[in-house]
Design the sequence.
């Protein structure tokens, strides 16, 4: 079929009612049905945003390249880098036989505790929008569709499939909708995913105001809206509201019900036709209309992707503090490598963004490769896990076609770890995914004698035995907790004394549970040994005997994960104690943090340097080492304010209505005052402000000049590298209305540029500030209003490090919501 010449209108008119309806629901988890009669191929989707997982489940599956997570891209302040990453991920999507990437995630960091903040770019809509546009353009330049998500108001994981986000229209338009608006108007995004939550009472997937009035009429979207997985709740209302696609398949709310709704006139033929046309258009754009396979998933470990990921990791790393200890010099002195994140590569967050990476470089491995082991000493010091370390080994999994582990197994699999995620088809399709049980058997040989902890949690019922003795029971009294997308229980832990070197038999029994909403079954089991004071002392001792101590701390994808919010922002476990002890033992202590957002740092004044490295993908250790040794600049700047304490954040409140929500509603009462807008308004000094990040060289800014222009205004400022090394900085341009008639933030980011300069080099930068940069959303008239009068434009290196200011008088004007 010649895709260029294809007439989609006549194609849709050749389709029967049943065929049309078939294209409005998935066929399975990741694809739409083909229609062979009409030569219509198969559209396949795959998760993002930090790669392309393919059709495997969250654990295992074909290997893929793991790119930096969203907040790391946010920290790069570099839309060009986002574009390169988008284009590279497009190749990954193709290697997985798919046409559509379920990315980027552009919800805004309203709180510091949202479990998915790691996946999102920033607390700021301008930065988020600019990065999203780059990423989408990169993807779509290779004919892979972007599905920007989650539209809209999905800023927390608490009761995420039912919660109503109560957000006023001004706040929506100025903050939460803004990245989606630019994605449509500037990047021409081909697909949007509606969020799980309700928005002001109505499910996003059937919210006509959101999906039709705003998205299509105001912004001119002509692509496909698909629901988040299992987030479609109706046939006619969702179709009428503007939702094209129910995902995943097979159809649950549509199919026969939608056929009936069309026959009774509840959904008009015209509406049905329009929704199907959008799907055909997406298929046409991505080439899937003519894709008749064969469907193959390839793992392509490309050197170019390795290099891009390594560079991006350094571009995202934020040097929060440095008293001169960094960059490290490659002398022969000893380095103590300490902490729970030193030998484990923390490369990504948890949930649907997980993938099976080609490889994962830990900081330890990168340092060994660079320096040789003789220069290093190591101490773990303490743990930081949320769940006991996963039990690994040769694990035999037997599946039974009933919920009682009765009779002969109908299928046997071998697993490498007790971390499984069973989505249909389970056991190669030999059991009904709603009616099965499984027994996992293997062994465990401890390295240490003493008390061990066995932890298990599951979406489904489970129990864990050691040598026939029940140790952890998540079967009797199972209650829903905050794991596995809120379908699993919290970890149940049992303790047992074990002897080193002895081999114990481990058995886990699992049974599918009735009435699970997401239709998933999952299990994770681990075995760990608690660490104590002696381990912290051993770490301090290692630090004392070294010239420099590097402490690798933070969280992991167990904490920064889809499906649950954090319960606070102190470092998990005894990591604060560990850092304090190491810092007391060695004045040259460098802390490398890996988290998906801010943490409290009671030790910040006592350490020599702090580097925030996020979850930077498969090259994690190499990217971190490149920055530590100065082979690369710490290119990142904070995309989210780091407050001194959780209490300072706008969502920390005594009032649960405000966060985490009450009676099924979470009220965004702070309005547009989130992130730095909030700290500025209340005069709270953050630990590290939005936009902050040090370089290994120094920069200065010249005077700021702002002049009126036809499109709005133009700001000009020069920046110079006044140090001895080449380096990069981010020049940030903020605007504030001096005489606003409504409460407006003192300053809001309106433009930025990442600049790389040689020593002594300076550059004059020009920033266009369109009229929209000065306007607020007028809810009465439903338009963008610019009030006449004076505005302060500021140029700086962070939201609080303002180096130059200028005033400009702007005349009143209004802009229509359709204005591009
Ligand atoms: C997530 C989406 C994801 C989808 C498919 C959902 O749980 O919210 O972001 O794309 O699953 O895995």
Sequence:
């Amino acid at each position: 079929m010649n895709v260029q010449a294809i007439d989609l209108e006549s194609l849709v008119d050749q389709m029967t009612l049943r065929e049309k309806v078939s294209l409005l629901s998935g066929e399975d988890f990741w694809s739409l049905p083909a229609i062979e009669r009409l030569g219509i191929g198969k559209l396949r989707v795959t998760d993002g945003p930090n790669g392309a997982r393919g059709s495997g489940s969250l654990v295992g599956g074909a290997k893929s390249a793991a790119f930096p997570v969203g907040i790391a891209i946010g920290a790069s302040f570099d839309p060009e880098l986002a574009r390169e990453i988008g284009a590279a991920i497009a190749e990954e999507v193709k290697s997985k036989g798919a046409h559509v990437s379920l990315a980027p995630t552009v919800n805004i960091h309203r709180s510091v505790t949202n479990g998915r903040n790691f996946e999102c770019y920033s607390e700021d809509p301008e930065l988020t929008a600019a990065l999203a546009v780059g990423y989408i353009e990169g993807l779509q330049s290779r004919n892979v569709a972007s599905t920007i998500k989650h539209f809209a108001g999905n800023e927390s994981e608490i009761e995420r499939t039912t919660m109503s986000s109560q957000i006023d229209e001004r706040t929506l338009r100025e903050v939460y909708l803004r990245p989606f608006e630019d994605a449509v108007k500037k990047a021409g995004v081909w697909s949007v995913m509606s969020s799980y939550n309700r928005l002001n009472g109505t499910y996003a997937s059937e919210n006509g105001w959101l999906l039709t009035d705003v998205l299509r009429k105001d912004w001119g979207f002509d692509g496909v809206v698909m629901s988040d997985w299992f987030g479609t709740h109706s046939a006619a209302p969702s179709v009428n509201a503007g939702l094209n696609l129910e995902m995943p398949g097979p159809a649950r709310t549509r199919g026969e019900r939608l056929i009936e709704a069309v026959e009774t006139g509840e959904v008009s033929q015209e509406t049905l036709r329009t929704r199907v046309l959008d799907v055909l258009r997406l298929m046409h754009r991505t080439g899937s209309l003519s894709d008749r396979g064969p469907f193959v998933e390839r793992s392509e470990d490309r050197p170019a992707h390795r290099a891009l990921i390594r560079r991006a990791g350094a571009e995202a790393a934020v040097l929060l503090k440095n008293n001169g200890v960094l960059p490290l010099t490659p002398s022969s002195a000893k380095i103590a490598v300490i902490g729970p994140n030193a030998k484990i590569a923390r490369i990504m967050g948890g949930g649907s963004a997980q993938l099976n990476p080609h490889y994962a470089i830990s900081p330890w491995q990168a340092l060994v490769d660079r320096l040789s082991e003789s220069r290093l000493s190591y101490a773990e010091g303490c743990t930081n896990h949320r769940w006991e370390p996963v039990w690994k080994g040769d694990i035999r999994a037997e599946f039974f076609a009933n919920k009682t582990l009765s009779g002969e197994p109908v299928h046997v699999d071998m697993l490498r770890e007790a971390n499984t995620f069973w989505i249909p088809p389970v056991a190669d399709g030999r059991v009904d995914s709603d009616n099965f049980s499984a027994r996992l058997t293997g062994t465990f040989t401890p390295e240490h004698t003493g008390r061990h902890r066995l932890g298990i949690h599951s979406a489904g019922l489970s129990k864990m035995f050691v040598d026939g003795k029940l140790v952890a029971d998540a079967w009797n009294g199972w209650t829903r907790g905050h794991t596995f997308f809120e379908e699993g229980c919290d970890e149940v832990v049992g303790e047992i004394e074990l002897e080193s070197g002895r081999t114990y038999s481990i058995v886990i029994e699992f049974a599918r549970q009735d009435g699970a909403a997401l239709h998933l079954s999952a299990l994770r089991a681990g075995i760990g040994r608690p660490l104590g004071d002696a381990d912290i002392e051993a770490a301090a001792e290692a630090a004392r005997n070294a010239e420099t101590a590097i402490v690798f701390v933070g969280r992991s994808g167990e904490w920064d994960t889809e499906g649950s919010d954090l319960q606070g922002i102190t470092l998990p476990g005894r990591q604060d104690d560990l850092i304090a002890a190491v810092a007391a033992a060695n004045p040259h202590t460098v802390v490398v943090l890996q988290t998906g957002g801010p943490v409290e740092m009671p030790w910040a004044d006592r350490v020599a340097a702090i580097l925030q490295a996020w979850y930077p993908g498969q090259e994690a250790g190499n990217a971190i080492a490149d920055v530590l040794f100065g082979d690369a600049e710490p290119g990142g700047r904070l995309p989210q304010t780091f407050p001194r304490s959780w209490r300072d954040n706008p969502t920390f409140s005594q009032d649960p209505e405000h966060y985490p929500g009450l009676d099924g509603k979470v009220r965004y009462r702070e309005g547009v005052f989130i992130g730095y807008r909030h700290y500025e308004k209340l005069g709270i000094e953050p630990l590290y402000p939005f936009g902050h990040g040090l370089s290994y060289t120094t920069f200065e800014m010249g005077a700021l000049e702002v002049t009126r222009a036809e499109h709005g205004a133009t700001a000009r400022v020069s920046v110079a590298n006044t140090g001895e090394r080449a380096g990069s900085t981010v020049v940030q341009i903020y605007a504030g209305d001096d005489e606003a008639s409504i409460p407006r933030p003192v300053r809001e980011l309106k433009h930025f540029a990442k600049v790389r300069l040689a020593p002594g080099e300076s550059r004059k930068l020009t920033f266009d500030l369109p009229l929209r940069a000065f306007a607020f959303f007028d809810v009465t008239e439903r338009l963008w209003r610019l009030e006449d009068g004076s505005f302060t434009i500021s140029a700086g290196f962070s939201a609080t490090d303002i180096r130059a200011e200028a005033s400009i008088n702007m005349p009143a004007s209004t802009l229509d919501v359709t204005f591009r």
Notes: The chain has a mean pLDDT of 96. The domain at 317-383+532-634 is CATH 3.40.50.1700 (Rossmann fold).
